[in-house]
Amino acid sequence: MLSRGRRRVAGKQQPGAETRDRLIDAAAETLRTEGYAGTSARTIAKTAGVNSALVFYHFGGVDPLLLAALDRSSEQRMTAYREAVAKAGNLEELAEVATDIYRADIEGGHITLFTELVGASIARPDLREEIVKRAEPWIEFVEQTLDRVIGGSPLAKLLPPRDLAYAAITFYLGVNLFTHLDADRTRTEALFSLAGRVAPRAKLLTLRLPRRRETPS
């Protein structure tokens, strides 16, 4: 059974569902432009053009609404990421895809949503728990991608995909934060350029080792 806010009549959304969608869109926009400190029920409602009481009616508070905005953005980006990385068959191609993803995320603001909430969670244990839950699927996604590309290779033995996935997520969050200081993005672009130059040189380390044949006893 669909909840009150998501019921449809004659193929159209009821006003409650439309209001929820408007609030989620407004929450994402407000968090991107004003940051967590400047985001409140009032500022979100003003952007959405609705009464601030509806934030609490539909979501129970500001943080649950912001998490809903993050969930929507994450779902959209994950779909796009899976399609993008599926075409990468080696580290060089993966570095190119990662650069494209970084540029798209900076323009679209997804990573800004995530980093703003990560920063806010430092002082809010309840929010931190929810962020950790939402970070895990991304770590698993990166791990699975790396395992597909370098699994079974000497590089994977030296740097396990799980460890590399943690490093990649940490690096990505750090890059996004530094982007706010690097106005023209030259330094952050240089980092991805460096990755693109290093990836081909690691080719020998990503060759999968043949399995040893068992000798008959």
From TrEMBL:
<dbReference type="InterPro" id="IPR009057">
    <property type="entry name" value="Homeodomain-like_sf"/>
</dbReference>
<feature type="domain" description="HTH tetR-type">
    <location>
        <begin position="17"/>
        <end position="77"/>
    </location>
</feature>
<keyword id="KW-0805">Transcription regulation</keyword>
<keyword id="KW-0804">Transcription</keyword>
<dbReference type="Pfam" id="PF00440">
    <property type="entry name" value="TetR_N"/>
</dbReference>
<dbReference type="InterPro" id="IPR036271">
    <property type="entry name" value="Tet_transcr_reg_TetR-rel_C_sf"/>
</dbReference>
<keyword id="KW-0238">DNA-binding</keyword>
<dbReference type="InterPro" id="IPR001647">
    <property type="entry name" value="HTH_TetR"/>
</dbReference>
<protein>
    <submittedName>
        <fullName>TetR family transcriptional regulator</fullName>
    </submittedName>
</protein>
<feature type="DNA-binding region" description="H-T-H motif">
    <location>
        <begin position="40"/>
        <end position="59"/>
    </location>
</feature>
